[in-house]
Amino acid sequence: MRIFTERLLHLIHCPQVGNAAIRNLLKHDPSLLNLYSFSSSKLQQLLQLSHSSARKFFHDFQRIDINKILEKYHASGISVITFRDREYPEMLKEIYDPPLVLFFMGDNLLLKRPSIAVVGARAADAYAKKAIGLLLEPLLESGFVIVSGLAKGTDTFAHQQAIRLGGKTIAVLGGGFFHLYPPENRELAEKMKKDHLIVSEYPPIWRPQKWHFPQRNRIISGLAKGTVIVQARSRSGSLITADFALEEGREVFAVPGPIGSPLSEGANRLIQQGAKLVTSGYDILEELYIE
């Protein structure tokens, strides 16, 4: 593994420094050649850390044996792409705050294929399952990969239906691979590791945190030409994904739901606000000018 990648991963494994801090450091040391020779005060300055954060950072930075960790990842079949690698998805480079690294298991070639994101309520019901089946078949026949978040409900239906219909699917996680969430989807994740793809910007040894999930939604929408919302409450993480898609200039689609159902409120409101109403995958293909 190249020196730059190892050093970038060393920083990534320190929770006190986020993407913005690392990018600031890269402005001054683009290849990270001086990472281990900077004085503590200089590194704190470049990373723009407070005194308390700097103390925690240096404790972790000195304690972490990045080579040992990477050996563990390799033994588990986990690979890494950095934002400078040619394998890094071009569409993801276009979003605000693209991830500096992607950890992945499975077929990374799927990152190069056109994708559609399908997200929605964790409490999704039989209506959502039926709708997803109607949406996916034409999309998969046209070569699209289905991207979702491996959450309960809609995400699970989307991955399962894509697999059942003989297509390909990508799961973007809100935590590390060694702490898969939700645990009910471990069997599904194992299947996807072999024939599909799971990705995360979070180190495999990290446990998922609440704030990880809204952040990972930018990757779900960022990998896709468009995002489909299937059932969502008025306040829903799915709507965050839709917002990211709109900010990135991507298409937003919504499946209409029964009036009066709480699970319909979010999708129906998106339609009122201009999202394209879809009742089949052909509606999506038509909007994307796919023949």
TrEMBL record:
<dbReference type="InterPro" id="IPR010994">
    <property type="entry name" value="RuvA_2-like"/>
</dbReference>
<comment type="similarity">
    <text>Belongs to the DprA/Smf family.</text>
</comment>
<protein>
    <submittedName>
        <fullName>DNA-protecting protein DprA</fullName>
    </submittedName>
</protein>
<dbReference type="InterPro" id="IPR003488">
    <property type="entry name" value="DprA"/>
</dbReference>
<feature type="domain" description="Smf/DprA SLOG">
    <location>
        <begin position="80"/>
        <end position="288"/>
    </location>
</feature>
<dbReference type="InterPro" id="IPR057666">
    <property type="entry name" value="DrpA_SLOG"/>
</dbReference>
<dbReference type="Pfam" id="PF02481">
    <property type="entry name" value="DNA_processg_A"/>
</dbReference>
<dbReference type="GO" id="GO:0009294">
    <property type="term" value="P:DNA-mediated transformation"/>
</dbReference>
